[in-house]
Amino acid sequence: MAKKLYVGGLPYTTTEDSLKEAFSQAGTVESAMIIMDKMTGRSKGFGFVEMSTEEDAAKAIDMYNGKDFEGRNLTVAEARPMEDRPPRRDFNDRKRGRGDFGGHRNTW
């Protein structure tokens, strides 16, 4: 069964191909994904690698956690499920009488 790993501390220049190539030294890599910022299109400095077996995942953690990769120390751990996020704030609150975002006093 495949095991997903969190990889943090990635250099912003790291590509998915270079990440996959590096982790393939620990075993078979099913996928490698770098998380990108939606606004800038730049890497956020972390990603996920899916290893084909739990043994390969454990070997990858031993090989790379706390180790230098392209000039930065990596954090490699078993990925946790994504937690529920609080709902996004609606910036139309002023229309509903819930605040003045301009710093001006309400005069009505």
Could you characterize what this model shows?
The protein is an alpha+beta fold. It has a single domain (about 5-80), classed as Alpha-Beta Plaits (2-Layer Sandwich). It has 2 helices and 6 strands, in the order E-H-E-E-H-E-E-E. It has a 4-stranded antiparallel beta sheet with strand order 2-3-1-6. A two-stranded antiparallel sheet has the order 4-5. The longest helix is centred in the middle third of the chain and has 11 residues, at about 55-65. The protein is globular and about 65 Å long. The model has no long low-confidence stretch (mean pLDDT about 85).
Question: What are the salient characteristics of this protein?
Answer:
Alpha-Beta Plaits, single chain, 29% strand, alpha+beta, two-stranded antiparallel sheet, 2 helices, 108 residues
